[in-house]
Amino acid sequence: MESESNTKTMRCKTCYEEYDPCEAGTCNMCYEMASEAKEQLLQEFKELERAYEQLDDKVAFLRLWSPVDQAHRGSPDPVFPDVVLVAPDDGLPPVPVPAHKAVLVNRSPVFKAMLEHEMEESRSGTIKISGVSYDVLRAFVNYLYTAEAWLDKQMACDLLVFAEKYQVNHLKGFCEKFLVSKLNWDNSLWTYAFAHQHGAKLLLDAAFTFITHNIHNLTKTKEYKELVEKDARLVVEIYEAFLSKRLNTTVFKYTSKEP
Amino acid sequence: MESESNTKTMRCKTCYEEYDPCEAGTCNMCYEMASEAKEQLLQEFKELERAYEQLDDKVAFLRLWSPVDQAHRGSPDPVFPDVVLVAPDDGLPPVPVPAHKAVLVNRSPVFKAMLEHEMEESRSGTIKISGVSYDVLRAFVNYLYTAEAWLDKQMACDLLVFAEKYQVNHLKGFCEKFLVSKLNWDNSLWTYAFAHQHGAKLLLDAAFTFITHNIHNLTKTKEYKELVEKDARLVVEIYEAFLSKRLNTTVFKYTSKEP
Fold this sequence. Notes:
The structure is a homodimer.
Chain A: E1 10-11, E2 18-19, H1 28-62, H2 67-72, E3 83-86, E4 97-99, H3 101-107, H4 109-116, H5 120-124, E5 126-128, H6 134-146, H7 153-165, H8 169-181, H9 185-197, H10 201-213, H11 222-230, H12 232-257
Parallel strand pairs in A: 3-5
Antiparallel strand pairs in A: 1-2, 3-4
C-alpha cells in the first residue's frame, strides 16, 4: 500500500508525489476504475482511428477520375464518356461536359429515370441542362465522380439548387454543411428563406437558431423589411416556430419542476 | 475542500464516498488533470465518430452498382456497359461479365494500359481473362464497383492472385487482411510460401510471426518437409530472416544495457 495512513503526508498513485491529506483527490477504487476506463477508451479510440484510415482508403479507391478534369489535362478521350451535358451559356457557344451514363444513373434518380427510359437524352447522348452556368455544371459533374467540390458561398448555393433538382442528396448535404459554417446574424434571414425554398432542413434549423438568438433585433434589419414585403408568410412562420419552441421549453421547464 | 484532513476518513472527489486514508488513490491535482484529459479524449472520440460517419456516407455515395448484380437482378441492360470480360470455363460456354471501361481504367493500371492504347481489347470491347473461374471474375468485377467481396479462404487466395496480376492494390490488401485473420500454426508455412510468391508483404510478415513463435517444432511438420522438397531456398530464407531478427534483438538488448 503506497498511501501512508500513519503520517501526515500521503503518496499519489498517479504522480507518486507526496501530498497533504487536504489535497486528496480520489479513493483507490475510483482511481483503479478511472485507469481501466481510460485504457479502454484509448483502445477504442485507436480502433476507430484504424477503421477511419481503412474507410479513407476505400474512398480513395472508389473515387473516379472526373472526365471534366481529364479533358482539362489535355487527354482527348481517355475515359470513354458516353454522354455529354450541355448548359447553354448566354450568347456563348456551349461547352459540353463529358460524362458516363452509368455514373449519372448511379448518383441521381432524375438522371436514372431520364436515361433508362429511352427518352430523347438517352438516344441522343446529350443532356441539356438549363438554369446553370458552365462552371456550376462542371463542379456538379466533378462531384458525381469524386465527392469533392471547391466551394464559395455562391457556388454552394448554386450547387445546392442543382443537387436538389437532380436529387443528389449527398451533394446537397455537402453544400448545406458549408453554408452552415458561413452562417452569421447578418445572413441568417436570407439563409432561412433560401433553405426554406429548397427544403434544406439542416441549413434551415441552423439559420433559425441564429435568428431566434437575436429575435428582438430582427425587425430593425433591412433584410427583415424586405422579406416582409416579399414573403410575409415566411416571416409569420418564423414567429410561429419561435413561439412554439418557447412554449415547449416553458412547458418542459414547468413540468420538470413538478415533483 | 471535500477532503477532511482533521478526521480519519476522507471523501473521494469522484464517488463522494468516505474512505480510509490507506485507501487513497490520487492527489487532487492528478484527479483534476485526469478529469480534463478524459473530457478532452471523449471530445476527440466524438469528433472522430462524426468524421467516420461522414466518410461512411461518402463511401455509400461513391459506390457504384455492380453491373454483375444488375444483370443478376434481371435488368437487361440498365447500366450501359461498354465492355465485357470473359473467363473461358473448361468445356462450358463462357458467361460474359459486363463492365465499364471507365471503371476498369480507374481501378487497374493494367486495364488502363490495355484499353487506352487501342489494343485488341479496346477495339473489340471484349477482354479475355485466363486462369480464373467465372465466380472469381464476377467477384473481382463486383469489387471494382463496390469495394466489397464475400470471401472464404479459397476466394481470398484467388482474388489476391487476380488483384496482383491487374495491380488492384486495394483488393489485394483486402484479401491479405482476410487471410491474416485466418492464420494459425497449421497453415502458417503454406501461407508464407503463398504470400512470398505473390509479394503480399502484410500477409508474409504475419505468417513469419506465426512460424517463428513455434520454430522449434517447425521441422516436425509434414508441410515443412514438403516445402523443403519443393522450394528449399524459401526455407533457407525463413531461417535467415529468423536468425537476423534474433541477432538484431540481441544486439539491441545488449546496446540498451550499455550506459
